[in-house]
Design brief:
- The protein has helices at about 10-20, 20-35, 55-60, 75-85, 125-140, 210-220, and strands spanning about 45, 65-70, 95-100, 110-115, 140-150, 160-165, 170-180, 185-190, 200-210, 225-235, 240-245, 255-264.
- It has about 260 residues and is an alpha/beta fold.
- It folds into 2 domains: about 10-150 and about 210-264, 3-Layer(aba) Sandwich (Rossmann fold); about 155-210, no CATH class.
- The protein is globular, with a radius of gyration of 18 Å.
- The structure holds S-adenosylmethionine (SAM).
- S-adenosylmethionine binds next to β2.
């Protein structure tokens, strides 16, 4: 009886395994920052940090690295402390977690702010998203950058389920509702287990699908100096290869994920 079931599984563990790529995102931010500013970054703020997995990866990368994680949800932060930070010992002292709305926090300044897994799509209103971008700009040191991920393509706007198999469970991405007029987008994550038990609506999102051009315009309007889109390359068979490079004209993939980096 050591297989996972809905009753025994931990939803945060399942999420980290099936959704997050914090290690590759840390490598990406490090590379982009060094290419732009010619120095190694040390101070990261992870917005919407959830279990603070990226903070953990960041402080483990270099002894001089420090991270701040911000999230509204105290119980998720607590899970992150117990499962991601306590196990790394002394390095955890270089992580501070703040339970607050990202819109309220501007201190202390950092060199990088990261908002991943589309959490910034929780801001439906242009004025509020602009407030977030301006507050991020004010929270960055003079040579700093904000990194956002974004997805799109025709398949993003279709009501559908997508399943992926992992060791011991199935991840189910449920694109439940999309309103083409407001771009309001309701999605859920479910998990299914070998005994057919199911963890329904383990995570639920009420997002607005923002597009790259409108996001870029708003970042520039908010005061960022330059906004660069990093688009994923493809291998010989045309499959995404995990290598994100600056790009002005993306290919017409049915579904894509890209990074938007706004430089101060
Ligand atoms: C999709 S999870 C992101 C977790 C993780 N950072 C990742 O990349 O997968 C979204 C998290 O954002 C938090 N959140 C939503 N709105 C927020 C806000 N305005 N300020 C701070 N945290 C927020 C939620 O509590 C939740 O833990």
């Amino acid at each position: 009886m050591n297989y996972l079931t809905a009753g025994r599984a931990d939803k945060h563990k399942l999420y980290e395994t099936s959704v997050q790529s914090a290690d590759t995102e840390v490598e990406f931010m490090d590379r982009v920052f060094v290419e732009r500013f010619g120095r190694t970054p040390q101070y990261l703020r992870e917005d919407f940090c959830g279990t603070a997995l990226m903070c953990k990866e960041w402080v483990e990368k270099r002894e001089s690295n420090h991270a701040i994680g911000i999230d509204l949800d105290e119980s998720t932060l607590q899970w992150g402390k117990e499962n991601n930070l306590n196990p790394i010992g002394a390095a955890a002292q270089r992580v501070s977690l703040i339970c607050d709305n990202v819109l309220n926090v501007t201190d202390p300044s950092t060199e990088i702010i990261a908002a991943t897994n589309f959490s910034w799509w929780g801001f439906h209103d242009r004025k509020v998203l602009k407030q977030y971008f301006m507050s991020s700009l004010n929270s960055l040191v003079d040579q700093g950058m904000l990194m956002l991920d974004i997805f799109g393509g025709p398949e993003a706007q279709v009501v559908q389920f997508e399943e992926r198999e992992y060791d011991g469970f199935t991840y189910i991405w449920d694109q439940d509702k999309f309103n083409p007029i407001t771009h309001s987008y309701k999605c859920n994550i479910h998990f299914r287990f070998p005994d057919d038990s199911k963890m329904e609506n383990a995570f639920q999102y009420d997002w607005r699908i923002w597009t790259i051009p409108e996001t870029r315009d708003l970042l520039l309007e908010s005061g960022f100096k330059e906004v660069v889109i990093y688009w994923e390359g493809t291998d010989q068979d045309g499959n995404p290869n995990g290598n994100f490079q600056p790009c002005g004209a993306g290919d017409l993939a049915p579904a894509w994920v890209a990074y938007i980096v706004a430089f101060k």
